[in-house]
Design goal:
The chain has helices at 20-23, 323-329, and strands spanning 5-11, 24-28, 41-47, 59-63, 67-82, 87-102, 106-113, 123-124, 128-137, 143-151, 156-158, 171-172, 177-179, 182-186, 193-195, 198-205, 216-221, 224-228, 232-237, 241-243, 248-256, 262-269, 274-277, 281-286, 292-300, 304-307, 310-315, 333-337. With 347 residues, it is mainly beta. It has 3 domains: 5-102, no CATH class; 106-228, Immunoglobulins (Immunoglobulin-like, Sandwich); 232-337, Immunoglobulins (Immunoglobulin-like, Sandwich), CATH 2.60.40. A hairpin with a 4-residue loop joins strand 5 (67-82) and strand 6. The chain is elongated. Residues 1-22 are annotated as: Disordered.
Length: 347
């Protein structure tokens, strides 16, 4: 007859490896990790097991680092053996070792793009840019995402009033990827570089079981980028599309980012796609913190994805240096629809 049995479960050589306390967490019967102290060894009394019967317990392990760990499962029990004169109690134990390999569930790659969706390495002060975190599943099991969040420094903020996770409820299989898109802007600062903060993802392994696994959070540091301080910025306000031989109004808004008035020289270079009305060449002054509007009316001559007339910008204080920067800010093309045919009244 078997008496009470004691089941032990944990990490091998925990007394010799002091780093286990920071790299692994185990639980029994229920997957509970967050908010609890990390445990390296658990014991449970599983009672008396009658001959021919079976008892089972579920055990969970959460590794905080990739690599291999050895897990032990130990059963200590006693058996009473009757003899002719008395009953002998034998104390026994059985121990098994399992090597568990932990892999990274997904990789995160971060890209920076301008508002024209062109890849950039540096960001500009007080100008919006796009942050694209791309998650690629490397797990042999599907990974389910609950939410994501950006923790940004004080000099970086979102252009949206409310930022919603774009991967909520998404499930990725191995080699599949998902990308989020955040539009951010830097505040006025004298810093020449800044960290973009931290990207945090809440996720879990998805499996077909009645057991509900908890979501865990993983944080990834975002890169440190250089901040370019430019004296002016130019925005172009134009319709999403135009039509052949119909008026297409444009408005260039020039912002002075410095604390001094700036003398500007602007010229509009025509092309074969449009006729336009407005100042072909103009000299003006932009006051600090005050926008200056340049209005043009374009008349499309053909249909398609057409190159816009180029607005060449020059600053008297910084001659020949600002135009290449301005061209990266401005859209270069616009879509022009063909003129539709009008049906006759008798059709």
């Amino acid at each position: 007859m078997s008496n009470d049995e004691l089941l032990s479960f944990g990490l091998k050589d925990q007394s010799q490896n002091t780093t286990n306390e920071q790299t692994a967490h185990i639980s029994m019967d229920k997957a509970e990790y967050d908010g609890n102290l990390e445990i390296q060894r658990m014991e449970a009394n599983i009672g008396v097991i009658q001959a021919g019967k079976m008892s089972s317990r579920k055990m969970y392990i959460k590794n905080m680092q990739t690599g291999s760990k050895t897990v032990f499962v130990k059963v200590e029990y006693s058996i009473s053996v009757p003899t002719k004169q008395t009953q002998i109690t034998c104390s026994c134990q059985k121990e098994e070792f399992i090597t568990v390999t932990t892999v990274s569930p997904f990789d995160v790659a971060v890209k920076l793009q301008s508002m024209k969706f062109e890849e950039i390495e540096n960001i500009q002060a007080e100008e919006p840019f796009i942050l694209l975190p791309e998650l690629t599943c490397t797990s042999p099991w599907p990974v389910e995402f609950k939410s994501s969040q950006l923790q940004m420094p004080t000099n970086i903020q979102s252009t949206d009033e409310e930022t919603v996770s774009q991967i909520q409820g998404v499930c990725l299989n191995k080699k599949e990827c998902a990308t989020e898109c955040f539009c951010l802007i830097t505040k006025s600062t004298s810093q020449t570089s800044t960290s973009l903060g931290t990207y945090t993802v809440s996720w879990r392994r998805k499996w077909d079981s009645d057991v509900e696994l908890p979501f865990v959070t993983t944080s990834f540091p975002l890169p440190v980028v250089n901040i370019e301080h430019i004296p002016i910025s130019v925005d172009l306000r134009l319709p999403a599309y135009g039509s052949v031989k119909q008026l297409l109004p444009l408005c260039y808004v020039i912002h002075n980012r410095t604390s001094y008035p700036q003398e500007m020289e602007v010229s509009m270079e025509p092309n074969d796609n449009f006729m336009f009305s407005g100042n072909k060449q103009i000299h003006f002054r932009v006051l600090p913190g005050k926008p200056y509007n340049l209005m043009y009316n374009l008349f499309p001559l053909m249909a398609g994805h057409l190159l816009l007339p180029k607005l060449a910008v020059n600053m008297v204080r910084y001659p020949g240096t600002i135009d290449p920067i301005v061209q990266k800010m401005l859209p270069s093309h616009v879509f022009i629809k063909p003129t539709g045919k009008t049906l006759s009244a008798g059709v």
